[in-house]
Each structure stands twice: as C-alpha cells, then as structure tokens.
Amino acid sequence: MKKNLLAISLMTMGLLYGILAAVLILVALCTDLPLSFALVVSMIILFIQFLIAPWMNDFVFKVFYKMKKNVELPPYLEEFIHESCQKHHMKYPKIGFIDDGSPNAFTYGRTKNDARVVITRGILELLSEEEVKAVVAHELGHANHYDMLFMTVAQVVPLILYYVADIMLNIDSGHSSRRSSSDSKDSGNYTVIIGAISYVLYIISQYIILWLSRTREYYADHFAIEETKNPTALGDALVKIGFGLAAGGKEERSKVATSANTLGISNGKSSKAVALSAYNSGTVSKKSIVNAMKWERWNVWAKLQELGSTHPLISKRLLAIADQCEAYEQAPYIIFDEEKPESYVDDFFFELFISLLPLLILIIFAVIAIITTNHWLWIGIGGLAFVGSLFFLLGHTHKNAGYKETTVEELLSEVKVSNVTSIPCILEGNIIGRGNPGCIFNEDFVIQDQTGIIFLDYNQPLNIINKIFALFKSKEYFDKKVKVKGWYRRGLVPYVEIYSMEYDGIIKKCHTYTTTKVIYALLAIASIICIIQAL
Known about the structure:
Elements: H1 2-30, H2 35-64, E1 68-69, H3 75-87, E2 94-98, E3 105-108, E4 116-120, H4 121-126, H5 129-144, H6 147-169, H7 173-176, H8 181-228, H9 231-243, H10 250-259, E5 279-280, E6 283-284, H11 286-298, H12 300-307, H13 314-324, H14 345-371, H15 375-397, E7 404-405, H16 408-412, E8 423-434, E9 445-448, E10 453-457, H17 463-472, E11 481-490, E12 494-503, E13 506-509, H18 512-534
Parallel strand pairs: 2-4, 7-8, 10-12
Antiparallel strand pairs: 1-2, 3-4, 5-6, 8-9, 8-11, 9-10, 11-12, 12-13
C-alpha cells in the first residue's frame, strides 16, 4: 500500500509540476517579462515558511487553543505509540493535548521525525481504548507517509499559477511602453491569454490537490488498520467523530484519562463534523450508521461538496474499511444495501435554482434598467422581485414554523436537508465543548443528547459580537444542560444554527434571522420609493 501511495503521489506531483512547467515555458516564449527572479524569491519564501511552520503552529495552538505539550498519556496509548514508532523507524512524536470535550485529533509538522500529534479530551472520554489507538494510528500514518511534506510541495503549484495569472492579467502600461508598439501589442494579447489559462489551471490544480489529500486519507486509514489489526475500532471511531456518538460511557472513560494525569493539565482545523449515532453499552448501532449514511450516499449535494473537501465522505471511508475486515477475520464493518426510494435530483435542482434566483433577478433587471429610459421604475420593480426571491430563499433556509422536539439520531437520518433546505428543530442536551475544539475565538458549540453529538452554529449579525461572546461569555455554557431551538441543515458537516438557547431559565437569542428580515423589509421599502418616484 505504501508503494502504491508513493507512486500515486509522484504521478500527481509530475502532473502538477508538468502543468506549471508548461505555463512557465509559455510565458518565456510569448513574453519578455522577467518572472524568474520573482518566482525564485517566492520559492525561497515558501521554503522558509515550510521550515518554521511547526513552530508557528505550536505558538498558535498554545496561545489560542490552550494546547499543552508533552503530556502524560494513558499507559496503553503511550505503549502503542512507542511500538508503532519503533516499527516504522519514527521518532516519538510531540504530543499536544487540548482540554475540550469535542472529539478531535490531527497532526502537523514537516517529516515523520518532527511530527506533532494533537488530541482533545473528548477523544479520551468518548472513545474506547481500541478506538483511541486507531485514531492516533491514523495520525501516525499521516506522519509516516510524509503527508505534510507532500501536500506542502503540491501547494506550491497553485500558488505560483495564481501569481503568474495575477501578473499576466495586470500588466501595466508602463512596462509595455518600454517595448516597441508592435511587440507591446503582441505581448499584450499573449499576456491576457496566458493569464486566463494560468487562472483556469490554478483552479484545476486546487482540485487535483484536494483529490490527493482525500486519497492520502484512505492510506492513513489503511495504516491505522495495519497497526491495530482492528478495522472495526477505526470504523467506530470514525462514526463517533465524523458522524458523532451517543451519550453514555463518559464517566467511565473520563476516569481513564484522569488516572493518567491527562485531564490534570488539560486542521489542521477542527472538522466540526460532529453529529450522530446510537451507542449502547459500547456497541454502535448499525441501523443508525446506515441511516446516517443515507444523506452522503443519496443527496446530490454530498457528491458536489466532496470535490471541495480535503477528506472523503465518511460513508466512503466506512465502506473502504469494510472491504479490509475480511483480512482480519472480522465481519464487514457496515453493509450499505439500502435501495434509494427516489432520485433526489429534482430536490437538488430546485434548491440550486432558488439559491441562484436572487442573482438571476439582479442581472435581468439591471440589464432592463440600463436599456430602458425609465431607469428608476425598473430598478424599483427589480428591487421588489429581488427582495421577494430573498424572502423565498429565507423561507427554506430558516423555516420559522413547525419546530419539533427531536434527537441528533433522528436529524442525521434525514435525507432531504441541505444548506438550502432546513428542518426546524428543538434539541435538549449538554454543551461538551467548542465547535473548533479549544479555540478561544470560536463561538460555536458541540451539544450531546442521549443519542449523539452535533455542531451548534452560534451566529449574531456582526462577527465582532460573535468573537466577544466567544472570549467572555461562551464558557458559561460549558457542561450546562441546554434547550436549543434552531434550524438543522447539512453540508459535509451536519449542524444546527441556533435561534435561541436556554439554560437555568436564561434564554440567549441569536438575532441574525430577525435582522435579515428587517434588512429585506428596508430594501422593499426602498424599491417602492423608487417606483413611486418613477411614476
């Protein structure tokens, strides 16, 4: 598997740098612009950034995430890491610990010998010992495969392509005037074409890198399975972190963490992907997992959004893990053999249409206003149509009726939900941590009910209000039992946008929805004034 990963990585790098070389050769042949010096300087800067990145990340996580380094781990985990590192000739990684109940783990560094592996308190509290080892093994897999190095080298290509596109599309007249008029004209034509080509290739290269990142996630999963000899443990861990997990077991697992003095001291960015699954007496309900997989397997939005993600869909990773179970004499982790009841394509196109409708109306009426003599009349009519489309869209993203008490597990089984279509809901549970674990500037939460955990999006009209809340008020909600009213929506990350949150008789409201309606109403009034003025 590792040889296959190396071959895939080298072929991808060859493709990316082949694209870059072709663009640079084209620039050299068609223009006389001195790009070489600027490119060399850019490469030097990128190299310096690569060298100092681990220490920069150390500083950021220490200051803004309150990360503790070189913590004392539970004996079973420390022994496992030592054995794995010795087996693969790696230095024992620096361990970071973030004291937050939201489960997350990640790694960063330059090579396998200076890797940092960071885990949160939620990993030790909410996962079994075998699942914790599987998660840490996945992170060690990233280090052992030199993923940090490969992805950094790959990122150089789109950065330079963007730089070339920016230069080509913004050639100033002063530079052109230093050449003859005919050379200037020919070069000008070439630079625009090369700039456009470079920008298109910049976008393509970004998607190639995202594909490479998703591929390396599969290989890190495979590494974890090889190290633990337990595909089921990795599957359960992915379900609990990626889809979520149910309540139960926190008290027992917290004792394990405390006994190792871990709690005594305390993606990468957080995936925020927390939400679901029934978990009883240590066994994950397969029915709940299958229900949670339906959205990823059937909803068209899932396929599109995965293209822009660094990680594969959880359902795909679970099925890949299931394929490896037989080699370890385990039953397939999950079998997804559900028949799709409908295509869901019509829902996708309807949601896409209402998302684009405000923009389409703006363009249409802007053109009409320009080509007609009575500009203010059509501006007013277009404004009313625009506001109407915004209210129509808001009625789907924030359905303000039919709120029902539900559970995380029930929400995750919904297929007809997206960032456009919401489900009004009421959840009761305990706040266990921040949406971005440990980050002092993150205003979002993770809530845990009797069936699972899910991300809560706290959003006020002004972002500065969110940050003030995160710094000075959010801690008041930690470990509190709350009742949340809001809208369940789903992209790759399932989440509930908070409308109101109640604890100890105190109700905290987010005013973004109300403010949005007021702004739309003011736009409507302004449009009516335009019409009256025109008449």
